[in-house]
């Protein structure tokens, strides 16, 4: 496995590669969710690249980025084990030469970014769209793998790649979960023991809501009950919504397979997000 | 010469090309200024591509775009004559599938775009940065040629290409002028006979100002006198400013070669811009 520390090296190596390239963009602190993305890329592509970059542009809260877990040595071992051929791990100043000033150029996606994570975390999706555009331009993969756990992000990245004509197919892959259903996330490490015990309730409530909606119960009532169940379990609810699975637009009626339930809620200081298909 | 009407065809042909590719992005209505860009690309690159696309995203005023000159047949002849190998002429719906809705994704450049053309034409540079990013991604040229006449645009495009790590070198080339000094522009066609006679005064005043600054006269006074001269000649002055030639930042003192004089002024209904080095 080759480790590339600069965008120039990433580009130079990319030029030597033949066959299909799959990129798995990550912020490190790799877990089984990332491993499933790398494994899928290895199945589908001749060459698998993993980028590891904790992107300061997508963090609103300076404290959040200061505490974000950084485990580069372990991550490199995970990448090698999972079948990656190349790891691209640039520094902040290589990605954003003027940092701590943000780059002058921003990529932003209207519409899809207005609600939920976009509303809760101002500037977050501009940071995501900008860094993913840069990574896709630097590495020019044929495929890029993203987890469905960050469902809104997956849709934003897909829209951005289409709108800018980037020659890549964005692949969304199912969320990987702990045995008790909690979605794998680097942020799970922040949970206290008690919070960790309560955390799987987010997925359980989403599944229950999806089941009720599937059985024809009325949407507003199902969502109200789901929200109440989460608050009883100790969550501070941020949102719990049913949306069109492709466009994230509001829905008039429920058609099977076309609806996605999206939720975010805080347990103590940790904000968890999750989503399920109806 | 090959004419490519769609981004997919542009990408497919690009993949077959070996050697260096130079792109000259235009909005058509080609004049000697464009020809000089194409000729320079032909000197420097193995393959010369010209894009012809009247980009609706960079026009604020619907009337302006409705009246923008469209001369595709003549333009194709000019391209062939000037040495182009490929012309990329997509339709609006191929570039922006949701049009008349703008694309969800925008590329924007802060700082450089705040003043002058950015202030006079809100949204203009977002439209320029977005379409040029798309063209550079679709055609992936090694070099892209822009005229210095649109000096602020040249700086914005260069910043965008650097910030997004697009694998292209942006080349700025000197403004081509009529015998009487008027900068070549597709918009010159809008001038009445009387306005056309007055128009070269813009360049003459810029040159006079540059001369005075070079001889050590004080900047504010030189610019005041230049503005007054333009208004006496029938111009409605929009701006006349001296700026750092690279960053467009305000300047404390005048160093030779590092200062650019930028001006925009209206003659009747037509807005003219021009700039000179000091």
Task: Considering the chains and any ligands shown, give keywords for the structure.
homodimer; 278 residues; alpha/beta; Rossmann fold; Pantoate--beta-alanine Ligase, Chain: A,domain 2; six-stranded parallel beta sheet; three-stranded antiparallel beta sheet; 10 strands; globular
Explained architecture:
The structure is a homodimer of 278-residue chains. Chain A is of the alpha/beta class. The first copy, chain A, folds into 2 domains: 2-173, 3-Layer(aba) Sandwich (Rossmann fold), CATH 3.40.50.620; 186-277, Pantoate-beta-alanine ligase, C-terminal domain (Pantoate--beta-alanine Ligase, Chain: A,domain 2), CATH 3.30.1300.10. The first copy, chain A, has 11 helices and 10 strands. Chain A has helices spanning 7-16, 32-44, 62-67, 72-82, 92-95, 117-120, 124-139, 151-163, 193-198, 201-214, 219-232, and strands spanning 2-4, 21-26, 47-52, 86-88, 105-109, 143-147, 169-173, 236-244, 259-267, 270-277. The first copy, chain A, has a 6-stranded parallel beta sheet with strand order 1-4-3-2-6-7, with helices on both faces. A 3-stranded antiparallel beta sheet of chain A has the order 8-9-10, covered by helices on one side. In chain A, helix 7 crosses helix 8 (151-163) and helix 10 runs antiparallel to helix 11 (219-232). Chain A starts with a strand and ends with a strand. The model of chain A has no long low-confidence stretch (mean pLDDT 95). Chains A and B meet through strand 5, helix 7 and helix 8 of A and strand 5, helix 7 and helix 8 of B.
Summarize the structure.
The structure is a homodimer of 278-residue chains. Helices cover 40% and strands 21% of the residues of chain A. Chain A has two domains: 2-173, Rossmann fold; 186-277, Pantoate-beta-alanine ligase, C-terminal domain (Pantoate--beta-alanine Ligase, Chain: A,domain 2, 2-Layer Sandwich).
């Amino acid at each position: 496995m080759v480790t590339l520390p600069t965008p120039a090296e990433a580009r130079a190596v990319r030029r030597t590669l033949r066959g299909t390239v799959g990129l798995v963009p990550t912020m490190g602190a790799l877990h089984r969710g990332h491993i499933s993305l790398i494994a899928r890329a290895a199945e589908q592509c001749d060459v698998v690249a993993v980028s590891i970059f904790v992107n300061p542009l997508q963090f609103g809260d300076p404290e959040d980025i200061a505490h974000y877990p950084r485990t580069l040595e372990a991550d490199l071992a995970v990448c090698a084990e999972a079948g990656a051929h190349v790891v691209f791990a640039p520094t902040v100043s290589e990605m954003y030469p003027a940092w701590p000033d943000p780059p002058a150029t921003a990529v932003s996606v209207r519409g899809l970014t207005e609600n939920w994570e976009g509303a809760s975390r101002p500037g977050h999706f501009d940071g995501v769209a900008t860094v993913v555009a840069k990574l896709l331009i630097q590495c020019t993969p044929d495929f890029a793998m993203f987890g469905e756990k960050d469902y809104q992000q997956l849709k934003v990245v897909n829209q951005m790649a289409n709108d800018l004509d980037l020659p890549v197919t964005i692949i969304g892959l199912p969320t990987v979960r702990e045995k008790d259903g909690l979605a794998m996330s680097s942020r799970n490490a922040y949970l206290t023991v008690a919070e960790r015990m309560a955390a799987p309730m987010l997925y359980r409530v989403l599944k229950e809501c999806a089941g009720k909606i599937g059985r024809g119960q009325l949407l507003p009532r199902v969502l109200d009950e789901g929200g109440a169940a989460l608050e009883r379990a100790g969550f501070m609810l941020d949102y719990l919504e049913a949306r069109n699975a492709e466009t994230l637009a509001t829905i008039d009626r429920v058609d099977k397979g076309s609806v996605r339930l999206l939720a975010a809620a805080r347990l103590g200081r940790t904000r968890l997000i999750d989503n399920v298909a109806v």
